[in-house]
């Protein structure tokens, strides 16, 4: 990584880690190989006991390392890192995500091309536990379905021509997303960029929804290639823990409370009710924890309503996001051509 070219806007790479020593050596090597000339590293350690913070301090002495005495959560960890970052752009990156050397440069070029772009994400493939790369998509941006479930676009699918085209998408997954710091400052509610009551999961959906409401755009740039192991797994299934599953369902409800409108929900009520009834039936029969997740969400509703009101009071203007419900992507062009 070239330390010269001070005129290039600073990119602050924020990595939240907890006992991630098996991923950090590769992460540090990749960061040093990035072609972008002006990068700082901020690592927030969530109470690791495997020597993760010591490794970063020894192998990347210029990095800012913050040690939390306990696991403060993915949202709070990122908030700590963002507050300490000095860059015009913030690259949020999971410890188990590896990036090609030109990713930072590619994503910054997209961001520079249009001041209305608040977030950019690249094409992230799945990687196996040992680090071997696959042709299976992990994420090509996020889509919000009309039943109010949020999904990673293209997830679990083989790569395709459609996913090789630049597009505007609903949101960017925080596992590997470049954010404009100006946008993050506008989205902040109190001291929180990501909602710390979420702890982890759906915090990026909530942030993307708020960004849409303020008129910020999110772009998918397929030339930004990365690979994601997924320690716990985003989806409920054999590889997912009960902790992950409960937080996914609880936070989905909280995201709706914070961002949706009664009118929009009424328009989509058949889809929402069908989705809820099917999954609640499955919960009663097989997975009682989903009911517990709903009860936990209900206890947080008053707090979410207060955060919703605080955000809307601070917003200069709000844009309806209904046009993005169920929309996979939209091709984009600017400056006379596509990315």
Radius of gyration: 19 Å
Please give the domain count. Answer: 2
For the terminal residues, how far apart are their CA atoms? Answer: 24 Å
Structural class: alpha/beta
Shape: globular
Poorly predicted ranges: 1-6, 232-240, 334-339
Please bin the fraction of helical residues.
25-40%
CATH class of the largest domain: Alpha Beta
Overall pLDDT metric? 89
Q: How many alpha or pi helices?
A: 10
Beta-strand content: 15-25%
Can you walk me through this structure?
The chain is an alpha/beta fold and 339 residues long. The protein has two domains: 11-228, Alpha-Beta Complex (Spore Coat Polysaccharide Biosynthesis Protein SpsA, Chain A); 242-316, no CATH class. Helices cover 37% and strands 22% of the residues. The chain is built from ten helices and 13 strands. The protein has helices at 24-33, 52-59, 74-84, 103-113, 181-187, 203-213, 242-259, 262-267, 269-285, 289-314, and strands at 11-17, 39-46, 64-68, 89-94, 97-99, 117-127, 133-139, 142-144, 150-152, 167-169, 176-180, 217-228, 330-331. Strands 1, 2, 3, 4, 5, 6, 7, 10, 11, 12 and 13 form an eleven-stranded mixed β-sheet that branches. Strands 8-9 form a two-stranded antiparallel ribbon. Strand 1, helix 1 (24-33) and strand 2 form a beta-alpha-beta unit. It is globular. The protein starts with 10 loop residues before the first strand and ends in an 8-residue tail after the last strand.
């Amino acid at each position: 990584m070239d330390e010269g070219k001070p005129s290039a806007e600073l990119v602050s790479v924020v990595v939240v880690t907890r006992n991630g020593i098996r991923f950090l050596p590769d992460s540090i090597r990749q960061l040093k190989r990035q072609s972008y000339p002006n990068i700082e590293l901020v690592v927030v350690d969530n109470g690791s006991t495997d020597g993760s913070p010591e490794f970063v301090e020894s192998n990347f002495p210029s990095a800012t390392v913050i040690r939390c005495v306990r696991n403060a959560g993915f949202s709070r960890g990122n908030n700590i890192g963002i507050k300490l970052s000095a860059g015009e752009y913030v690259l949020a990156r999971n410890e188990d995500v590896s990036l090609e050397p030109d990713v930072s440069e590619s994503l910054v070029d997209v961001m520079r091309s249009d001041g209305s772009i608040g977030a950019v994400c690249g094409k992230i493939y799945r990687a196996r536990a040992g680090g071997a790369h696959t042709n299976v998509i992990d994420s090509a941006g996020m889509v919000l379905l009309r039943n109010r479930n949020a999904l990673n676009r293209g997830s679990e699918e083989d790569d395709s021509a459609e996913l090789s085209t630049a597009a505007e998408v609903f949101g960017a997954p925080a596992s590997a997303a470049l954010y404009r710091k100006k946008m993050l400052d506008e989205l902040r509610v109190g001291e929180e960029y990501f909602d710390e009551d979420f702890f982890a999961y759906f915090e990026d959906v909530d942030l993307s929804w708020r960004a849409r409401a303020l008129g910020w755009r999110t772009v998918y740039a397929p030339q930004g290639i990365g690979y994601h192991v997924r320690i716990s797994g985003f989806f409920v299934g054999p590889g997912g823990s009960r902790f992950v599953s409960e937080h996914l369902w609880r936070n989905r409800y909280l995201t709706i409370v914070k961002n949706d409108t009664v009118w929009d929900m009424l328009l989509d009520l058949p889809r929402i009710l069908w989705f809820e009834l099917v999954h609640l039936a499955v919960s009663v029969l097989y997975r009682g924890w989903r009911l517990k997740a709903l009860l936990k969400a209900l206890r947080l509703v008053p707090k979410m309503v207060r955060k919703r009101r605080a955000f809307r009071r601070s917003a200069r203007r709000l844009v309806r996001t209904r046009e993005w419900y169920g929309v996979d992507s939209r091709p984009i062009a600017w400056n006379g051509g596509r990315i």
